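Handoff note, outgoing to incoming analyst
You'll be picking up this chain. Sequence as last confirmed:
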Amino acid sequence: MARERLTWGVSQRIVIELISPLRGCGSGFPAPNCFAVERGRLVKGEEICVRVFFSVFTEGGRGMKRFLLVVIAVAFFLSFESVYATTLVGLRYNQDKTSFELHTIDVASGLSTFLSDMPNGIVYFDPLELNHDKRSAGFLVDNTLHEYNLTNGNLVTTTELNRFYLFQYASPTSVVSMSYNTDTQENELYLIEIGTGRTTLLRSFSFDSGSWNTGSFMTLPEMQRAFALSGANTLYEFDLTNGNILSTRAVSLPPGTGRYELLSRNSIAALAYNDATGKNELYTTDIDTGRSTLLKSFTFDTGYYSADTFTVNRATKRAYVMSSIGTLYEFDLTNGNILSTRRLDGPYYGARVLMETTEKAKT
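Most recent structure output, in case you need it:
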């Protein structure tokens, strides 16, 4: 671990310690006189930590000049602090048009940007999902997958999904869906090619409870994994390359959970409603142990929320969800704190995190 220490002053001093890499921060420093800790990332990707130890100069003008030099040096390093700019994409209902519109939403300001109208003024759709690699969003209208470019709002493609009523992206060119075969009385996991609609049966199986929670269908395309939760709170993990069931784990999620989102291969964020307390509850669940942790018990400003707007930013460990009147709640998934609430330009009926790692230089 490389260190550089610069010291000014005689009996009083200012000390700046630069530590690289970031994991070295927080060790080997005296606790007294610690003025500030700033963590960031240089534009080339090198992580730094800056600690400033200080006491008041008594050297007159000469000391003040040295102090200003130190302030300038610190400001230079902190100017590269990483600030994540999270953008959501969602569907908003326009009362004047009596139809839905596709918008992007800047979380910091709450401002939205119109991208496109729903096709043919249709006012009903099924879950909105994101294709991160293609920077596009897809949703079902009458069992047809409509995929839109999120840069210009143009319709990219439509794909007939026939009997499928929910989906998740498996790759930039395919989606995966779960259906129920009434003849065999088994669930079936299918891979569907975007554009052609060609389907491949990956797996035919039965959940341990005979049913499952459709809001728990999740994928990690980068690892070719899919997850689904049975009615008995058993989490199934599938390999999307061959449909194999890789594992089944009992998890301790509470009843009434409406939406689940993967934080990583080992962690899930979930939003539930507690009938006994009349409050919503935010949880994280360790997939390997099955243990859930209650992060926050709270009430929405209207008492209700849209389940299809619960989404997470994996890079920053943030969760977002909108109340029934369009108030955007932002949560810290490390401790459950509500970081902000912002009233948007109307209620949204589907939202996902569009950009997880966009960085802006701090000004």
